[in-house]
TrEMBL record, chain A:
GO terms for biological process: amino acid transport. This is Branched-chain amino acid ABC transporter substrate-binding protein. Pfam families: Peripla_BP_6. Belongs to the leucine-binding protein family.
From TrEMBL, chain B:
InterPro entries: ABC_transp_permease, LivM-like. This is Branched-chain amino acid ABC transporter, permease protein. The keyword Metal-binding does not apply. It comes from Roseovarius nubinhibens (strain ATCC BAA-591 / DSM 15170 / ISM). It is found in: Cell membrane. GO terms for molecular function: branched-chain amino acid transmembrane transporter activity.
UniProtKB/TrEMBL annotation, chain C:
It is a multi-pass membrane protein. GO terms for cellular component: plasma membrane. It comes from the Bacteria. One of its GO terms (molecular function) is transmembrane transporter activity. Belongs to the binding-protein-dependent transport system permease family. LivHM subfamily. The chain crosses the membrane at residues 15-35, 42-64, 95-114, 135-153, 190-216, 237-258, 270-297, 309-328. The keyword Coiled coil does not apply. The keyword Transport applies. This is Branched-chain amino acid ABC transporter, permease protein.
Amino acid sequence: MSKSNFTRRGLLKTSGIAGAGLALPTIFTASSAAAFTNEPTGSTVTLGFNVPQSGPYADEGADELRAYKLAVEHLNGGGDGGMMNTFSSKVLQGNGVLGKKVEFVTGDTQTKSDAARASAKSMIEKDGAVMITGGSSSGVAIAVQGLCQEAGVIFMAGLTHSNDTTGKDKKANGFRHFFNGYMSAAALAPVLESMYGNDRKAYHLTADYTWGWTQEESIAAATEAMGWETVEKVRTPLAATDFSSYIGPVMNSGADVLVLNHYGGNMVNSLTNAVQFGLRDKQVNGKNFEIVVPLYSRLMAKGAGENVKGILGSTNWHWSLTDEGSKTFVKSFGEKYGFPPSQAAHTCYVQTLLYADAVERAGSFNPCAVAEALEGYEFDGLGNGPTLYRAEDHQCFKDVLVVRGKENPTSEFDLLEVVEVTPRAQVEYAPDHPMFAGGSLGSCNPGA
Amino acid sequence: MFGLNQKDTRLFLIVAAMTLLAPFILNPFPEGTAMAQMFNAGYPDLMQRFVIFGILVIGFNILFGLTGYLSFGHAAFLGVGSYAAVWMFKLVGMNVVPAILLSMVVAGLFALLIGYVSLRRSGIYFSILTLAFAQMSYNLAYSVLGNPASNFNLTNGETGLQLLLDDPRVLGESVTADGSIPVTNFFGIAMRDSFNLEIGGWLFTFNAGYYLAGIIMLISFYISIRIFRSPFGMMLRAVKSNQQRMNYTGLSSRPYTLAAFVISGIYAGLAGGLLSSMDPLAGAERMHWTASGEIVIMAILGGVGTLIGPILGAGFNEYFKNILSKINDEVLHQWLSFMPDGLENAFVGVLHFFVGKGWHLSLGLLFMMVIIFLPGGLVEGGQRLARLFRRRRPSDDDSQKSAQSTPAE
Amino acid sequence: MDAILLQILNGLDKGSAYALIALGLTLIFGTLGVVNFAHGALFMIGAFCAVTLQRILTLSTITIDETQKDFLGNPLKVKTPYVESWFGPETGAAIIDWSVPLAILFAIPVMLLIGYVMERGLIKHFYKRPHADQILVTFGLAIVLQEIIKAFYGANPIPTGAPAAFRGSFDFGSMFGFDPNTIIYPYWRMVYFAFAAVIIGGVFAFLRYTTFGMVVRAGMADRETVELLGINIDRRFTIMFGVAAAVAGLAGVMYAPINSPNYHMGMDFLVLSFVVVVVGGMGSLPGAVLAGFLLGILEAFASMNEIKAIFPGIDQIIIYLVAIIIILTRPRGLMGRPGVMEE
């Protein structure tokens, strides 16, 4: 605690200042004098970190929160500055944002759309947050993004992988750094082809909700394009804990690859069950039976233990990357907390820096000015190579990692190895791609 | 007044005053202080929740409190009402009145259907039947009925049913002039409009949506008092005390229990419609069995079968849920900064488990405490306190008896 | 045909977990008349007994290995479990490998103790209270228990593997003349089924053939008369509560390798096991077991692609649908007694 900015003395001092000049919570107020929602008028600015603190994704949320605290520390000039040193934009000086000290409030999404909107509302209405960020599911991200659009604050999405977040449910006030189902498929397909050949029969088990559907659609399209056949697509209930009755029939279907479009607890259980059934020891159609988990998360891979060994998937970022940005981030995170950051932590840290940087460049906290600064912005040095925040849909385009469960891990964090860094050009798509069509950004809403 | 006896009139007036003055009562601390940051609850979203969940639990109490039938699937009606209201906003227009009316009608019909089937059984068999219906609704709403790719996307699944720019809204505009989705309103008064009043360091927010919901809650409360005092309410109580004897006297209890079930379903639908009016997104989670469990918990917390209990229980639950989950370690350090460093860290280390991400734990412990020590809920707590004060003045033994029954039935 | 046989196997396996939990629930309800919503939490604690024993067995000494680097570039800290340094690497590794079966021995006293403390400390005070109060206080207890586990073990699932000898699966298909690989079934799940059968048989035999069991059954039928005979029935019921807790706990221990334990697994099972108990009929032990297997098998069938093609989403609702039909056609579940929990 002693090194961070959140010692009690630091807080005492800042809360005094905050008390003197706190912005009035006049959001949703028609007759407000402010130019935009929660315009910071004092010497501080409040950001809202909306992460799952209870429920099954609580550990992932805790890691996101650690990253946010680290980012705030760095923005305020504490610590070693982290990725601010490697970021291609140099406008952040470590003196807060636009000279205002960064403060934050936290909320608990519980990974439920309703609860997440309630906690975001409370941070906007009560605490005067000028930006909301975080989350670890697509349903929550889309729901909170909609709320931020109505309220007139910026939403910097956390971990959300559904195509819809920047597809049919995109919003002018919402931005996503994380990759999506389409990109996973585009990155995985060539690796799958080179490793397993182009004559394969795939069996999909898909979590029966928005994210599962879009990922299944993306993976099926990409693998079919290279010659694979999709034998069956089976939907599994979200609440399912035992997947035996879905995995049993796989061997009967003539399929030789099992694609698990599951995340979190679903992924841990379905993968564990599949390995229990001995699918990976079997030979079908004269080939080794293979399992693919398109979206990997290190935190979740830990839950599946030894069962992840040798299984391919994709991830947004991994701590073993050796570019300068990643190394710096792993170092400052690892030294502060004692273990390497997860991909969720990475995307949340980067989103905070990107927001702060955009505010500095725009010279204003006004959501419309910030959005304009982020749109079409090219940057580098934040861990995924040269990256573009595309103006048409507010999606980041960057390299995607294909990873595999490691055979001989040296520590409890060393579970995945990077098989290939798929270059950005290969995962790009047109803004009006059919999987993303149907929505529109609308116009930016500054609230007030 | 209004056909209420003197005691009920007094109770009603107290509730009315509390509701209308809530922006003052809930913001006791000056803006910007540490106490305000955590304990002030006078912001629109939370105030709206207080009264809306109040309506929900008042309705639940008509069923459970009077007839003793424990429905473990009441959240389904809340969810159905929410969906109905959002569909109204999508298809017809952004005025909340038709949306709320539709949500009451839909929830009422849904309750009629489920009640007709479930009330064939009693006791735990009834509870499990309602639970099964609600869980089926939840599972279907989350997946099959919510697939955007199908032609039958009733609920929009995990994300929740939300408003879009290309919704038809035949009686209103699809998109406002500045390119946004229009906001929900009551004949032109936007639900999110607020008026801020600054007095000294204090800030009070008067929100249009809150006052609409608050007035509707008062009407619901009034109706519930009338039901409690009516011959119909007496019938329902007869069901609770001895259904068999009632049947032997030649009365069929089914129409009465079914009516109570439908009425409480309509209350839940009304609450759902209001939730959607304040925030036009309806998520499937509000139909999950844990949400139903929370309704039961709120009712028991407040005091089952009492008039004021549901409102107290709902307010208590929502308040602690919102406040506890927002306290994090930094805030704790700030509060306890008067202590020496070592002691401070020790206290934060212990409290850490009960706040922020540990708020479920504190709430669980609180529920257990209330159920163990105050079987009659907060109302009983209030009565005990009142009795304690009365006992100091031993002269009036009579008023002790009346105090026992005043806030209750 | 082979698909149907496979789903029967799956159903028996799912059913054995339901049946074990429902059996414990019914034991408590039948003896003490208490509806225990914390029973799922006991199942979860059982699974965490396996996790805890695994943690204890892998307590390690840390040695610095200069040749390898950790993620920050510092020398790697290599952990060697104490059991490996005490018993030699091979025996030590074998002990760790068998931690789940060993956890049975660890879990029995722990669960009996937890059951005893729960009954004496909390449940005892709720015998005379309405069922709604019992449900709510035990529901509150379930939340408290699972949050405590979460505070110590985190929210993520924790992998707890079966012994290496039981990994992999057995090919029933080739044994019974079907095509190879059509009916495969994991060894550990077969162990689970056999274990459940032994426990269920054990509980029934205990109640049937021991004097203690006879007295308990007499107490379930007519508590007052048994008390008038000068038998301390309360004490025996308390012990039965401990036994029920142990049954749930053992079900949890053995379940740990099937799905990695997490803090909310109890809640996931709770509602389903309640539906099982009610479908079986409140207070009927054979009913609970029968309903457990019945619902397990129906759930497995409902997840077949052929059936899902006709009724989309049927696997999401099958258990509730069956529960509704059974309660409506058989007023007191499959084998319930009249008058129990109907007021």
